[in-house]
């Protein structure tokens, strides 16, 4: 925010805010909402952003882009917290921490609003008396849980409005003992309700209590000589115990707890929840996050707690967070209490078993983030190559791409660099350096002509495969000279483009005007990566050459210093400064240099230093 008029306009707006709680929306010059925040007192909180000397990195970065302000007042800070979450989902502001996937996660629904409930997956929550469990971040895990319930509990699986006016013949599930057959009308609501109660206990993680109740029912059925019912109960007990034994015991207290861990890299992050129910580790949930570049752990966890726990259907008793996330969560806890009629405890263990579980959660988060970033890169690389083929009208998918750049220092020590990407990734075995033979000084187009001619000649002579695309770091002039080199070798059919630095525009051979594409597209990101890698590779080599040339120039012309001794001296000292600052004794440490020669070299260096300006 550089314009004083903009600053003055915002200050005038702030005067009208007063001390009400609410949400504020910072916008950039394009009118895009870039940050949404909440405050107990809007006026004082918003005014704090206008100090250009901020200590907080995030606020400093935000200050640069501030251009306009909007706000929504609320009655309480708790209402502002809920509104903040809604506005972040709506505007997806880049400076806010937010869940990366805006999709709705699936829930398991037990349709308790019906006389004969069933269990199914849904992404919509209705306020009709049904019970919901979730969200599940992994759809496969949700389906596996549903399949497990259907395997253990003989609940109906067919959508029907029960009871039916006229009972119908039961399906195969009934004959297999996997459904009580309410469609027949021969199972009472009470018996069916008991089954639904068992399913609810199972989903709530109360497996110990469930097994205990089923054992009591089995004994009662056996005493009444209801052996078929006792057999059904025994089968359910065995299956539940089998599931429970696969789960790790992490707490002898037998409580319901969530352990949260996070991994962050630049703007991206991954939040992991380890769910402990009844003292056993039952599952893991993974949430991708974005907008983390300038956010500390307190802000990240505050945002996540709000977005996740205010939307769950079942609360744990305790949530364990890393000590770095300590902060003020009073408004969040107040909102939880109001919504659920109960609260949760937030704990920040610094040692003991819970600290070990936090480390386990963080390790899982790091693995998940690594996997996601890798998958994203692979997906982007594939998309980028397809975009290149389509946008550049290439005959084949550009699996092998080469990029060339010229590097020199004020015209001296010019070199060229060529890098190769295969399937969108750097292929180091295909990297090449070139010392210029036909040009000196500043002549980038001529040097590009030379290096492309040398590269293509080598490929033809060695009968090696040609690249699918050649990218030239430069504009129309450099590209034209590269195309000349290819045409001279009758290789004009090789696709070739120039990538101009200033506006990230693409030039095509024979066309005067460049083309512009979305600079954030996978295609343009890949081309920039190529160009930047070629530049980095070339600059590194050019510096090495300049350094060697500077070292050689010190010793050139000295009596009794031939190529062999000069090489020994340069190898020993490694830098021009070390050679020029060397004492006679240090020079004598070089193999083949005695006192007399050391004196000659030392005197020659001193004379040279006196001549330097």
TrEMBL record:
<dbReference type="InterPro" id="IPR036876">
    <property type="entry name" value="UVR_dom_sf"/>
</dbReference>
<dbReference type="InterPro" id="IPR038476">
    <property type="entry name" value="UvrC_RNase_H_dom_sf"/>
</dbReference>
<dbReference type="Pfam" id="PF01541">
    <property type="entry name" value="GIY-YIG"/>
</dbReference>
<dbReference type="Pfam" id="PF14520">
    <property type="entry name" value="HHH_5"/>
</dbReference>
<dbReference type="InterPro" id="IPR010994">
    <property type="entry name" value="RuvA_2-like"/>
</dbReference>
<keyword id="KW-0742">SOS response</keyword>
<feature type="domain" description="UvrC family homology region profile">
    <location>
        <begin position="273"/>
        <end position="482"/>
    </location>
</feature>
<comment type="function">
    <text>The UvrABC repair system catalyzes the recognition and processing of DNA lesions. UvrC both incises the 5' and 3' sides of the lesion. The N-terminal half is responsible for the 3' incision and the C-terminal half is responsible for the 5' incision.</text>
</comment>
<dbReference type="Pfam" id="PF08459">
    <property type="entry name" value="UvrC_RNaseH_dom"/>
</dbReference>
<keyword id="KW-0227">DNA damage</keyword>
<feature type="domain" description="GIY-YIG">
    <location>
        <begin position="19"/>
        <end position="97"/>
    </location>
</feature>
<dbReference type="InterPro" id="IPR035901">
    <property type="entry name" value="GIY-YIG_endonuc_sf"/>
</dbReference>
<comment type="similarity">
    <text>Belongs to the UvrC family.</text>
</comment>
<keyword id="KW-0234">DNA repair</keyword>
<keyword id="KW-0963">Cytoplasm</keyword>
<keyword id="KW-0267">Excision nuclease</keyword>
<dbReference type="InterPro" id="IPR000305">
    <property type="entry name" value="GIY-YIG_endonuc"/>
</dbReference>
<dbReference type="InterPro" id="IPR047296">
    <property type="entry name" value="GIY-YIG_UvrC_Cho"/>
</dbReference>
<protein>
    <recommendedName>
        <fullName>UvrABC system protein C</fullName>
    </recommendedName>
</protein>
<dbReference type="InterPro" id="IPR050066">
    <property type="entry name" value="UvrABC_protein_C"/>
</dbReference>
<dbReference type="Pfam" id="PF22920">
    <property type="entry name" value="UvrC_RNaseH"/>
</dbReference>
<dbReference type="InterPro" id="IPR004791">
    <property type="entry name" value="UvrC"/>
</dbReference>
<dbReference type="InterPro" id="IPR001162">
    <property type="entry name" value="UvrC_RNase_H_dom"/>
</dbReference>
<dbReference type="InterPro" id="IPR003583">
    <property type="entry name" value="Hlx-hairpin-Hlx_DNA-bd_motif"/>
</dbReference>
<keyword id="KW-0228">DNA excision</keyword>
<comment type="subunit">
    <text>Interacts with UvrB in an incision complex.</text>
</comment>
């Amino acid at each position: 925010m550089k314009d004083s008029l903009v600053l003055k306009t915002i200050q005038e707006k702030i005067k009208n805010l007063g001390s009400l709680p609410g949400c504020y929306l910072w916008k950039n010059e394009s009118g895009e909402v870039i940050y949404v925040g909440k405050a107990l007192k809007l006026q004082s909180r918003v005014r704090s952003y206008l100090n250009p000397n901020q200590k907080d990195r995030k606020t400093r970065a935000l200050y640069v882009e501030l251009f306009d302000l909007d706000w929504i007042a609320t009655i309480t800070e708790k209402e502002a917290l809920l509104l903040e979450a809604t506005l972040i989902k709506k505007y997806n502001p880049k400076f806010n921490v937010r869940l990366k996937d805006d999709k709705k996660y699936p829930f398991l629904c037990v349709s308790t609003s019906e006389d004969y409930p069933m269990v199914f997956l849904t992404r919509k929550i209705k306020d009709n008396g049904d019970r919901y469990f979730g969200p599940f971040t992994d759809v496969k895990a949700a389906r596996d849980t549903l399949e497990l319930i259907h395997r253990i509990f003989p609940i109906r699986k067919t959508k029907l409005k029960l009871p039916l006016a006229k009972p119908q013949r039961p399906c195969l599930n009934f004959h297999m003992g996997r459904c009580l057959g309410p469609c027949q009308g021969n199972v009472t609501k009470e018996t069916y309700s008991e089954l639904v109660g068992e399913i609810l206990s199972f989903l709530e993680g109360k497996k110990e209590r469930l097994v205990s109740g089923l054992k009591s029912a089995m004994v009662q059925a056996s005493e009444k000589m209801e052996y078929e019912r006792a057999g059904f109960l025994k089968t359910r007990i065995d299956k539940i115990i089998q599931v429970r034994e696969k789960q790790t015991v992490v707490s002898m207290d037998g409580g319901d707890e969530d352990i949260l861990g996070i991994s962050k890299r630049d703007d991206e992050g991954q939040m992991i929840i380890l769910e402990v129910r009844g003292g056993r580790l039952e599952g893991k949930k993974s949430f991708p996050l974005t907008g983390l570049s300038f956010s500390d752990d307190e802000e990240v966890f505050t945002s996540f707690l709000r977005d996740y726990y205010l939307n769950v259907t079942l609360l744990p008793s305790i949530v364990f967070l890393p000590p770095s996330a300590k902060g003020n969560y009073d408004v969040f806890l107040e909102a939880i209490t109001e919504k659920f009629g109960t609260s949760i405890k937030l704990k920040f263990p610094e040692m003991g078993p819970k600290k070990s579980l936090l480390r386990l959660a963080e390790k899982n988060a790091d693995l998940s983030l690594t996997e996601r970033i890798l998958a994203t890169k692979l997906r982007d690389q594939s998309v980028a190559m397809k975009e290149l083929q389509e946008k550049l009208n290439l005959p084949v998918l550009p699996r092998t791409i080469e990029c060339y750049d010229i590097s020199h220092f004020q015209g001296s020590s010019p070199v060229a660099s060529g890098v190769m990407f295969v399937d969108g990734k750097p292929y180091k075995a295909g990297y090449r350096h070139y010392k210029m033979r036909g040009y000196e000084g500043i002549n980038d187009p001529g040097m590009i002509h030379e290096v492309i001619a040398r590269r293509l000649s080598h490929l033809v002579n060695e009968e090696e495969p040609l690249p699918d695309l050649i990218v030239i770091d430069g504009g129309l002039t450099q590209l034209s000279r590269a195309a000349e080199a290819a045409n001279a070798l009758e290789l004009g059919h090789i696709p070739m483009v120039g990538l101009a630095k200033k506006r990230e525009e693409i030039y095509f051979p024979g066309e005067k005007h460049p083309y512009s594409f979305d600079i954030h597209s996978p295609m343009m990101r890949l081309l920039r990566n190529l160009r930047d890698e070629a530049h980095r590779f070339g600059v590194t080599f050019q510096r090495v050459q300049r350094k060697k040339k500077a070292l050689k120039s010190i010793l050139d012309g000295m009596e009794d210093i031939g190529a062999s001794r000069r090489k020994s001296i340069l190898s020993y000292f490694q830098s021009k400064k070390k050679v020029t600052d060397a004492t006679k004794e240090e020079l004598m440490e070089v193999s083949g240099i005695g006192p007399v020669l050391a004196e000659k070299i030392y005197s020659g260096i001193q004379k040279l230093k006196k001549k330097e300006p």
